[in-house]
Each structure stands twice: as C-alpha cells, then as structure tokens.
Amino acid sequence: MQNNPYPDLIAAWRDPRRELRSTVRVLAIVAAIVLCFTILFTQIFIGVQVVGSSMEPTLYGGDYLFVDTTAGIRRGDIVVVETDMHGGAGETSSYEWIIKRVLGLPGDTLYAQGGVLYRRQAGEAEFSVVEEPYLDAEEPWTVRSSFPEITVPAGEVYLLGDHRNVSEDSRSIGPQPIAQVVGVVTGWALAAKDFFTGIFGQFARNP
What we know:
Structural class: alpha+beta
C-alpha cells in the first residue's frame, strides 16, 4: 500500500521555520517597496506648493506639484529655483524657492518691447517672437513690458513668471544658475495638479 503523503505535506507547510522564512520575505519586499518610494519621492520627485500669484493663470497660490530633479531643462519649462532674492553688496542674503518659466537657455538673446517677447536662440541669426499662449489674454503684460537685449550667460537660464505684471523674475534678479534649479515641473505633474492639490490640501486643512 502506498503511503499517504498529505500528512507530511501539511506538517511541512506548518513548519514554524517555513512560516518565519515567508514572513521575512514579505517584510523584505515591503521594506524594499517603502525604500523605493522614499527615494523616488524625496530624491527624484520633490513635492512643492505654489505661493503667490506670479505664475497665474497656469498655477495659483496653494497648488501642489511635483518637480523632477533629474529632468533636462528646455525652453518653456516651468522650474523651481533656489535663488537669493535680495542678496547684493551690503545686503543680507535671503535664499528662497521660486517657481518660474524658462524663456532663455545659455547663449540665447532676449528682449521685450511693448509686452512682446523676442528671442534669438543660440546659434541662430534672427530674432523671432516667442509665442506664449499661457499668458492671460485678458490681462495684457504692461508692467516692465520692455527690456533691452540680454544674452543669457553660460550655465544660466532666463526666467519669467506667467503673470508678468506682478512677477519678480530675471527682469529684476537677472539670469539664474542652472545649478540652482531644484527641478522641472513635468507634464504629468502639471496635468495632475488639481488632484495633488485636492489630496494634499486636505492634510493642510486638517493637521
């Protein structure tokens, strides 16, 4: 007569050592997942909250976003930059994060005339009008709407806010070092900003 294998299988399945190994594997998998998410959302994607109105109507004060710290910078990107807004000779440095749009890369030359921005990209011979559909057509750019030609130095970017009439940007603080760029607002983060704002806004209102 053939021996019944089931009692032996059941005994092996109930072996405490087997259960311990299974528990350790599960805990290791959970720890790995937590570590990956921690690295992903503290080192690669960083959450930020918009303060002020300088990027309206694209972004409003209180909006929550993620910036990608590994993304390359392109013309038209929205970036978060750590900058000294008030530092200068005899002045106290005041570093803060600002969120603006990149309008010029190293070697680009820009100027504005009557609320129209012109740019000659590095390597090009002629200026062209920068199309800016993100600006509010109902509030024309009138404040500091003209500025003389400026060529963006190597290793720097020229930044403007979308709400030009209130924005403090490269018109007043000059081009900013690329090394000071914290990250780029990616397309998916911009598309999901209302979702992020709804989620994180709940935590802000209910500490």
